[in-house]
Structure formats: structure tokens, C-alpha cells
Specification:
The complex is a heterodimer of chains A (182) and B (562).
Chain A: H1 9-25, H2 34-47, H3 58-73, H4 86-95, H5 110-122, H6 126-136, H7 142-149, H8 153-177
Helix pairs in contact in A: 1-2, 1-3, 2-3, 3-4, 5-8, 6-8, 7-8
Chain B: H1 3-16, H2 22-34, H3 36-57, H4 62-76, H5 84-93, H6 98-110, H7 112-132, H8 138-152, H9 158-169, H10 198-215, E1 227-238, E2 249-250, E3 253-266, E4 271-284, E5 287-298, E6 307-309, E7 313-317, E8 321-327, E9 331-338, E10 341-345, E11 351-354, E12 360-363, E13 370-371, H11 380-387, E14 389-393, E15 396-398, E16 414-425, E17 430-432, E18 449-451, E19 457-466, E20 477-483, E21 487-491, H12 494-504, E22 530-533, E23 539-544, E24 553-560
Parallel strand pairs in B: 5-6, 15-16
Antiparallel strand pairs in B: 1-2, 1-3, 3-4, 4-5, 5-8, 6-7, 7-10, 8-9, 9-12, 10-11, 12-13, 14-20, 16-19, 17-18, 19-24, 20-23, 21-24, 22-23
Helix pairs in contact in B: 1-2, 2-3, 3-4, 5-6, 6-7, 8-10, 9-10
The chains are: A mainly alpha (182), B alpha+beta (562).
Chain lengths: 182, 562
Amino acid sequence: MTGPTAETYIDSVREHHAGLRAFVRSLGVQPMWVDDIAQEAFIIAYERLEEFDVERDFGAWLRGIARNLVINERRKDARRKRILADNLTDILVRTSSVPEEEEEELGDRGTAKLAALRQCMSELPEKSRALIQARYEKEESAPDIADRLEMKPPAVRKALERVREALRKCMDEKMRTAGVTP
Amino acid sequence: MDHFEQRFRALLSQLLDGELTAEESAELAHLCAANPERVATMRRELELAELLRVVSSEDEGSQAGISFHHRMSVVLGDDPEATFGDLLHELIEGEISGHGIDQLVHHCWRDPSAGRQVRQALIDDDLFQQALSPGRCGEAFVESLATRMWAEQEEDHFVEEVASKIVRLHPELPPPPVTERPRVVRRRQVATMGYLGGWAAAAAAVVGLIASFLYEPGGTGSMTSVAELTKAAGEVQWAAGSGPLETQYFVPGRYNLESGVVTVTFASGAEMTIEGPADFEVWNEREAFVHTGVTVLAKNSAVDSFRLRSPTLDFGETGETIGLIADGATSTEAVVFDGGAEICLTDTGQCRNLFPLEPVRADANREKLFDVPYNPTVFARAWEVNAGVERNSGPVRLAMPGHHPGTAEEAPGEVQIFVERSRFVADRDIKVDTLDPGHFAAISPGGGRQLAPDGRELRSYLLQMRPEDEAVAGDALEASVTFDHEIVGIIFSPEKLAETDSLVGSEIPESELVADAGRGLDGDADNGDQILLSDDRRTVNLKLRGGAQDRVDHVRVLVALN
């Protein structure tokens, strides 16, 4: 088994970034800082490549680094924190697997999930796709979307949740079809 | 509680009292945008205020009591309607309050599977963003990471590897630019990324474009930068988590520079050069606060106003160029290098107009400013970066403010550099000497060309050399000087120096000059003074020979700032 080297590191970044970023977000990091922390984890991993045990899973090792970075956020003063709230991160970190155990993680196979998700989005009814694009591509808030579509914000939120749920199911189904455990 | 928190609390209080002006409302929105916790705080306060308003407007009676109890339970944490699902939606939509987070955490403590549900929802939401948001696509992430790794590990091959991948992924990109590595190694040009070669430069440019989109002042990115790091010298180190975004972009906030010297260029055009260790805050495009550190602020004539503060001083209106040495809450020394300025004590509000080179000190809990001796050497490193000059080799010294050509007491055999006019736009032709890059040239009378005004801002420097005495006149004085902007004109013949003194240069007393013939470079190509301009038009190399009649040599250098 071989791990990434300085020469092949870019391939490892491509393979793991989607899952790692999602993992970082799942620990209660503010959305605007997710990529920042994920990048820090990649940089630290690159600087410590010699310490990486090639028998281990590289993704799990990255998650361990990211997990420690997020835990460190707890110690910062309030203005510098990149997490939403200490208590939320506490509980979310507790529910994430300890890297040493290398348990299957929620953010694993992020790249495959991303590909499945893109396919699912293309299959959405036009109205649902417009809604999800407004929310994520144009970064409109629910009240903004509601205002534009002459709907009430709670209705937009409900509609968004329904579309998200449909996408989740579709993504899992596509992963299963491809022989990958979602 | 820092300044931002104090200001936020004050504005929130005004909002609740219905006394917020439109301008203050915008300021409050800005503060909230910089910190989501403030949004949550404001929401809680507004909820409570609204609740109190409704209760107070209702008739007295039991119905009002029920309503009050019900509404207070929403605010104070016992809301029966706030289900786990609702809270999760609010979290995903970014609309959850601090209290909502507490409730969500309680759910998670009660039911361990709830925590996993929260994480799964956050993961899915992040994947949705990665799939749809242009700013979060995989390529943007990888390219941004590449720039960051380049900035943090300059000698790494990561950028080249990423660049080659980009080439494969984007064959439509133009062929690699042929860029030569500069001959003379100089300070890192943060903004221009001049050290990257070939495709690495192309990759960096792509990344730069992405970064400029994300952090463009007033742009559509999630954070708005109000200033940018434009120059860096020495070993620049920021305290963990307290440097600029992408090592370059400053959003309103507090920064801690551990070492090195950086120039922060604000969106207003003002340039603040600060030497580490330093602790400072960027407030907006026209205001900054220095807790500790040596600072040189160049407001520039194009900037309407800029306010610089420290714990004990407040430059309500800065001069063209000022210096400030802040020592935490204890004291601050300040001096105006160029122009005038009004300076006020933070504690008492007492103000005083400062004249150029009139240094003062403000101590905490003291009621007046104290005059102190002018000690420019403490500003030497910051001034060097601010002036855009780097010594490469030879006996070169940058003159500090207050020293003028002809009157400065430089040692013989030394090249002294004066910043003559820091920023100006020529309104007529400037007669300069002809000098082709890459070849040593000597003075040739009668030559030259006209530098036509083209609207560009220029800066003029005067290099003054006083050769060794006659006994050692045979030895040539060799020196090399690099500027941080492109050299667009060099003047070294006596008559052109005299012609341009009043236009772009300095007032030099006649008594300081033996004669025009002794002022510029002397002699022929084989035996006289020689000058060379580097291929990249940023470095001037000088080889000067002394002599009894050669009391002073001058070379005027014009660089384009934009």
C-alpha cells in the first residue's frame, strides 16, 4: 500500500477534498470558513507527509487533522472563532468517529456522492431545480426567494427541504446502483 | 470587549431605542455581517423587545398573561413548537439563533442519533453547495489551495504540479508565457507573483482572478475585503488565525503581525506600512486602529480622508505621510512627515495641529501631548518599504524624512536616496536621458528623449553620491538599487537634472552644487561614471569614479505607480 507523495499530492487533494470539506462543515464550522479549515488540513498533511503511515487510510488521517483544527477553534476568543457555537461543535465532534478507529465516516466517498448529486440535480423537475439553484448557486436566502416567487418564506423553506430530501434519496439510490454503500 | 463589540452594543442599544440613523444602521449591518454571533444577539434582543412591546400594548388581564408567558417561553428556551426538524432547517438555512443552537444541542444530548442527523444534514448541504455554488467548485478549491501553499512554502513544487493539471483540464488556456526570472533577487511582490515561471504564473493568475472575485471590495463574495496586502519584506509571519484572508485580503477585523514588514493598501487608496511585531485593526477603507507597532501611513493626495487611531491618539485627519509608534495602552509617539495633521488625545479629546517633523507623545491618563526628539531611525524599515526602495549591494542608504538633497550629511563614498515627489501626474513633457536596458551606458551630451504625460502617476527619486576624496578617487563606487515599480525615466545629465528640478524634483541650494558640470554623471564610457538599467526596468546599477572636481553626482529616477 502506498500513500500520497509530494508529486502525487494533487491527486489526493482531488480525491478527498469534497468529503473533507463536508466533514469539516459537519463539525459545526461556519459555512464561510469551511474551505479555509479544509485547506489548512491539506497543508498540514502535506508538511507532515513523512509521518503518514501508508497502511492507514489517507482520508481518515486528513479527517483527524481537520478534527483537531476544529477542536482548537474552541480555545480561540469569540471574535476569531470559525465555528457556530462551542456547544454545538462539542456534540458534533463527539458523534464523529475517532480517526484512529478509521470507522466509515459520513463524509466518505464525497467525490462519488458529488457526481451522483449532480446527476440527480439534472433530473429534477424544472421548478425544483430552479428553487435549489436559487438557494445554492445564486446564494439567495429563503425570504429573497419567497419575495421573488411571491411565496411565503416558510413555504419556500418547506419546498427546499422537500427538494433536498428528494436529492438525498436519489443520491443514495445512485450510489447503491453503482455498488457503493451510501 | 474590543472596539467592534463596544460599537455593536452601542448601536444595538440605539436600535432598540429607535434612535438609529440610516448611516448607523448601515454600520450595524456591516458589523453584523462580520460576525454571525452579533446577528444572533441582535435577533434575541429584537425578539425580546417585540415581545415586550406586544405585551405592553395588550389590555391588562389573564389573556395578556398567557400571551406573555407563551412568548417569553419562546425566547427563554421552553418553546414547545421548536421541534428538532425546525431547528435543523434553521441551522441549514443559516437562520438559527444562539438560543436555537442551545435547543438543538439539548436535542442531541437527549438522543444520540440526533447528532448524527445534524451532521448528515450539514454534509448534504455542503455537498449541495459544492455541486452548485461557483465559488465552491472543486477547481476553485484546488487552485485556491495551490496559491496558499505557494504563499506559505515558496520553494514548493506544488504550484507547478497544479499548473500542469490545469493545463490538462483546460486546454483552451493560452500557451505558457515566456517569463524570465528577474536577474536581481528582490523582495517578494505579493500582488504580482513575479517569481512564478511559465505555467505556474498562468495558474497563479487564474487563482488571483478567483481570489479577486471572492474578496473583491464590494463584490459578491461572502466576505468583503476593505484592504489588500500589496508589499511584504522580511520574514512575514502572522499569529495563527490572525492574518489576512488568502494571506492578502483584509476584511474588517483585528490582525497580529509577528514579524516582517507589510504594506496594507486600503480601498480608499491609503497605504499603511507596518512593522511586526504589531497588533492592529482594519475598520473600513478609511479607518484603522494600531494597538502596537511602528507604522507609516501614506494617505496620498488622491485620498479624501483617512483616520488612524491608537489607544491614546486619534489622527482625526492625517497629513500626506505620518509615522506612529504605538505601545499598547501605555503611549503613542507620532510624527507628521509630510503635510499637516490634527491630532487628538483619546482620553480628553484635546486636539492640536501638528506641523511636519514635530514629533509628540501621548501617554495614557495624561491631559496633554508631550514634545519629544525626532528620531527617524525607528521608522527606517517601514519607511524603506513605504518608499518602494531596496538596497541590493554597495553603500546605499535611504534618506529619512527631514533630510534633503544637498543638505544631508552623507558619508563620502555613499549613495543616498531621496524620495522627491511621492506621487504626481506630469502635466507636460519631461526631458529624460536615453538608457537602454541591459547595457552599461555613460553620459552622452545632447541625447535624450521626451517622457510624454500619459495620465499615469509617477514618483521621483534622487540618488545622490558624494565620492571618496582624491586619494582614493581611482576606486570606483559600485552600487545597485531596486525599485518596486517600473522605471520609466532616468535623468543623469547635468542640464536635464537642472531642467527637471522644479518640475519633478527637489529644491537644491545653489551653494551645495559646485557647478552643473559636477552634478550629473561624468566622463566617457571608458573612464567615466557608468549606469545600467536592468532588463526588467526596476534596478539601477551604478559604477562611479571620484575626482577632485566631482563633489556630488546626481541621478534622478522616475517610476510609474500604475
